[in-house]
Write a structure and sequence with these properties.
Length: 268
């Protein structure tokens, strides 16, 4: 399950464990107070450490920490501080997301409008964000937390089965408004409106998945890559240095990871 730092108590953690929850993902985003304050987060690094201790005491040893590379005002030094907390807490799993600017978020909309609110003018440039990400890959690997998917890193045996089933095209069911599902052949999304979902008055659209294309652009997200093929598009990206051969498999190069959306778009 996912939880926001700042509200985890011993009672809650023990109830989760009794209910069968054995892994909690924490939306930490940063361990630096000034960065947290600008995103409206109320927790502190010390609170996160305390709540992780609560989870462990309740018998939930598996947890994930989300970090965002590219928050307003983030620097190489502050990013190193967040990564140092990962090492201090001995996190078994970490997700690192590069900040995406889009109009669906307040910060993204402000950046696109060249505004000043929410620290929009202090968002690091693309090159800096890429450097933060590459630093995380290197530092986490040194901690024994290896990348197994573009945004996901784990100690050996701690990879998230929940995350992997998406990239491996395994069936899953989503419950609730706007939840997505896949039965191995068809994909569908529930209606966005909670009211319509509850009454069952509307149904989400059901579409036939493209197994060939999906195996490529989903499988390439994984560090293990995909089985090598003679696909012309794959050959072009290999010549461009975005894909590389690893024995009988093909995977993204370090540069390809940073430009992965360009690669995936060719197969959608």
């Amino acid at each position: 399950m996912e939880a926001a730092p700042g509200g985890i108590t011993r009672e809650k953690a023990e109830a989760w464990r009794r209910a069968g929850i054995n892994r909690v993902s924490l939306g930490v985003q940063s361990f630096v107070q000034r960065e947290l304050a600008r995103t409206g987060r109320k927790h502190t690094a010390e609170m996160v450490a305390s709540e992780i201790a609560v989870l462990r005491a309740a018998g939930i040893a598996k947890f994930n920490i989300d970090l965002i590379a590219g928050l307003p005002g983030q620097t190489a030094a502050s990013w190193a501080e967040s990564l140092a907390w990962i090492e201090r807490l001995e996190a078994p799993h970490v997700s690192v997301y590069m900040l995406e600017v889009d109009e669906d978020s307040r910060l993204g909309a402000e950046v696109l409008a060249f505004g000043e609110r929410y620290g929009a003018r202090d968002v690091p440039n693309d090159d800096a964000i890429a450097e933060f990400y590459e630093t995380a890959v290197e530092r986490l690997a040194a901690m024994g937390v290896a990348r197994y998917e573009i945004s996901n890193f784990a100690r050996a045996g701690q990879e998230s089965r929940h995350n992997l089933k998406y990239w491996l095209r395994e069936p899953y069911l989503g419950f609730g408004a706007d939840a997505h599902s896949f039965d191995g052949e068809y994909r569908w999304a529930n209606v966005e409106s909670a009211a319509e979902y509850v009454t069952g008055a509307a149904r989400g659209e059901r579409t036939l998945a493209d197994p060939v294309a999906e195996r490529v652009f989903l499988g390439l997200r994984l560090d293990r890559g995909i089985e090598a093929t003679s696909d012309e598009t794959i050959g072009r990206f290999m010549r461009d240095g975005l894909l590389e051969s690893n024995g009988s498999r093909v995977r993204l190069t370090p540069r390809g990871v940073l430009l992965s959306n360009e690669v995936f778009a060719a197969f959608v």
